[in-house]
Write a structure and sequence with these properties.
The chain is α/β, with parallel strands linked by helices and 206 residues long. It folds into 2 domains: 124 residues, HAD superfamily/HAD-like (Rossmann fold, 3-Layer(aba) Sandwich), CATH 3.40.50; 63 residues, Putative phosphatase, domain 2 (DNA polymerase, domain 1). The chain is 49% helix and 11% strand. The chain is built from 10 helices and 5 strands, in the order E-H-H-H-H-H-E-H-E-H-H-E-H-E-H. Helix 6 links the parallel strand 2 and strand 3. The model has no long low-confidence stretch (mean pLDDT 96).
């Protein structure tokens, strides 16, 4: 039996369980593939992304504003499908959380800054329903890390306190915010390091 004092583990998705759904590297790759001006794409992205990730804009509307604002030789669906294909699950990392949930009497939930469209695709492609008790996405709750309220919502849904909870994120700033809220935070850098840190907290993983 596990001897950890923690009863809930919350984890980010992109950068922990797989590639990021949408980031600068992917935007630049799309811009290069479809021969778009990268500076123009980045400038329009900065104006639109907060609304998209907070759920006030669909993925189609975002792509149309950032890429399709003038006549193009490609369609918005081609941009969408390119982005979908670039989402890669990290099976070993996903299996770590699967083991964690199966071997320990805990709630396991996911908290992610992700927008509509990409989210649904990645949940299915990564098999996230099978490893988690629930998921919180920024587009659905209109909250976005580092908003403290997104972590408080997770705690309320799980009915646990921060002192009972672990939070895992590849972005140190988000791990630090969670720590300030009372979570035991793990800054995910490598699978081996995160596994060792979870075992140090008393979780059974083998």
């Amino acid at each position: 039996m596990a001897n950890s004092r923690f009863t809930a583990v919350f984890s980010d998705i992109g950068g922990v369980l797989g590639t990021n759904g949408w980031d600068t590297a992917l935007r630049m790759k799309i811009a290069a593939h479809f021969r778009c001006d990268p500076d123009e794409v980045q400038g329009r992205h900065r104006l639109m992304f907060d609304s998209y990730e907070r759920g006030y804009m669909t993925f189609e509307a975002y792509i149309r504003q950032v890429f399709m604002f003038r006549p193009r030789h490609f369609t918005w669906e081609e941009v969408r499908d390119f982005a979908y294909n670039e989402s890669i699950a990290w099976d070993q990392n996903i299996d770590l959380l699967r083991q964690l949930r199966r071997r320990n009497n805990i709630t396991l939930a996911l908290i992610s800054n992700e927008g509509q469209g990409l989210t649904e695709h990645r949940v299915s492609k990564f098999g996230l329903r099978e490893i988690s008790d629930f998921m919180i996405f920024s587009y659905f709750v209109h909250l976005r890390k580092p908003d403290a309220e997104i972590w408080k919502l997770a705690l309320n849904l799980a009915q646990v306190s921060p002192a009972e909870s672990v939070y895992i994120d590849d972005r140190k700033i988000f791990a630090d915010v969670a720590a300030q809220l009372g979570f035991k935070s793990i800054h995910h850098e490598t699978l081996e390091r995160t596994r060792a840190q979870l075992q140090d907290l008393g979780f059974i993983l083998e």
